[in-house]
Amino acid sequence: MTPLKIVIAPDSFKESLSAAEVAENIQKGIISAIPSASIVMVPMADGGEGTVQSLVHSTGGRIIQTQVHDPLMREIISFFGILGDGSTAVIEMAAASGIELIPANERNPLETSSYGTGELIKSALGTGAQKLIIGIGGSATNDGGVGMLQALGIRFLDNNGLELGPGGGSLDKLKDIDITKMDT
Length: 184
Prior knowledge:
It is built from 5 helices and 8 strands; from the N terminus they run E-H-E-H-E-E-E-H-H-E-H-E-E. It has helices spanning 19-33, 51-59, 94-97, 115-126, 146-151, and strands at 5-8, 38-41, 62-69, 75-82, 88-92, 131-135, 155-157, 176-178. It has a 4-stranded mixed sheet with strand order 3-4-5-6, with helices on both faces. The protein has a two-stranded parallel sheet with strand order 1-2.
């Protein structure tokens, strides 16, 4: 008799277990009930946390760590991936601007910024990546990507020509966008 083949392909359990941890726990349960089962684990992601790891793992790529700013502009060590083709970078917004990076009592979308995601993009481009895959799930921000673009040199200005501060709460003051210093 051919052993039962089971594919385990879960996403993460937000703020609890990564997709790989979920898959491992499901596997343990199946093996305890069906020891002869042939199991294939394929952790998945929906664009949020786990996206980089899933794509890097499935393509034989590598993870690169870099320093960026979290949603409240504090320095952290984050990461992005280079896929197995060597020319495609994969970035997950959750790794720099994610809700899991800040405690519940500090989660205020009027104050949080996507700046760190822009720093990840800049760092990935610095490796020579020719293509980018950006997963935008798991964000703690609602600044419309303004912080991300600020990290890439775009300036968002108010009526007085002053640059907007971080966070979605300053967007109501937006008057002009200056792309003259955008990183290319």
